[in-house]
Design a protein that fits this description.
single chain; alpha/beta; seven-stranded mixed beta sheet; two-stranded antiparallel sheet; 18% strand
């Protein structure tokens, strides 16, 4: 556990440090137990999960939705275990478990003098992408939104920067881009781009998983303003504790894209990913908090 954590944090988190000395396959047994507690006892955000699934997949039966929900909760526990396992996981093991395909795309973009936005989503394990800095040249900025728990916020800042990435608050995105360009430095911005926007940023709505959904457009605006290539993280969970990341180009010429074209391509890619294996999306996230009839003028006008 590194420099972001205070001495008090390290004392509080010491049991986790000891726990993550165990092999991951042993920790997955603990995950199975956590699933029973989370799903059957605590019932963590169960109504939110079921409502999100019902609205997203209206053609599925109640039994099908229930099965997806069960698989989601199992994976949510695995995700937590995998994330804290970073405490003691070294780079070679992380690379073995979290493998990037077609890295030549990124190297080609860098050779063309292009900095890159890696666009991921709340799908699969986005924390193990901490190993990007030992797979790609140049600076890696991992943009994050602070967690409510200050201790766990500091822990995950530390873990996401473990292998050399620069963990950066999302509100500082513009600043780090400007500074890097000013210094003639190529870089990667790693963005979880399907965040729910703030009320003041509800400027673009689209259909996403069968629902009118407001989307953040900051990724597109950054790409167009600073001529950044945009690459999608197409994540596949191969088996428990193993992932393959297919890097797919959204655009390497953002200045010649139409308004919201980049955002729409990204949304459709995320949607396709979710339809393929829906249990790996973060269904407990209150993604559809805003009623489009209230907050979307176009919807209200229908």
């Amino acid at each position: 556990m590194g420099k972001e954590l205070t001495f008090k944090d390290k004392l509080l988190l010491f049991p986790l440090w000891v726990l993550t000395l165990l092999p991951l396959q042993v920790l997955f047994i603990i995950s199975d137990f956590l699933f029973l507690i989370l799903f059957y006892v605590i019932r963590y955000r169960k109504s939110v999960v079921l409502e999100n699934l019902k609205n997203s997949f209206p053609d599925k039966s109640q039994n099908e939705l229930s099965q997806i929900a069960i698989r989601f909760y199992r994976y949510l526990c695995d995700y937590f275990i995998e994330s804290i396992y970073l405490i003691n996981m070294n780079g070679s093991e992380c690379n073995r478990r979290y493998h990037y395909k077609n890295k030549e795309l990124v190297n080609h973009l860098f050779s063309q003098g292009k900095s890159i936005i890696f666009a991921t989503s709340h799908y699969g394990n986005w924390d193990w992408a901490a190993n990007m800095s030992i797979n790609f040249p140049h600076k890696i900025y991992g943009m994050y939104k602070p967690l409510t728990s200050k201790v766990f916020n500091r822990l995950f800042i530390d873990l996401r920067a473990k292998f050399g990435a620069i963990s950066t608050p999302i509100l500082q995105t513009f600043r780090v881009v400007v500074e890097s360009i000013k210094n003639n430095e190529l870089f990667v911005l790693y963005l979880v781009a399907d965040q729910r926007p703030l009320k003041k940023d509800l400027d673009y709505w689209t259909m996403f998983l069968n629902q009118e959904t407001p989307m953040l457009t900051g990724m597109e605006k950054l790409a167009q303003r600073f001529d950044l290539a945009v690459v999608f993280f197409n994540m596949k969970r191969v088996k428990r504790g193993f992932y393959e990341i297919q890097l797919e180009l959204i655009t390497d010429d953002p200045k010649n894209t139409k308004p919201y074209e980049i955002t729409e391509k990204y949304v459709r890619m995320v949607e396709q990913l979710i339809h393929y294996q829906p249990e790996y999306y973060l269904w407990s996230h209150r993604r559809w908090k805003y009623d489009p009839k209230i907050f979307n003028p176009k919807s209200a006008a229908k």
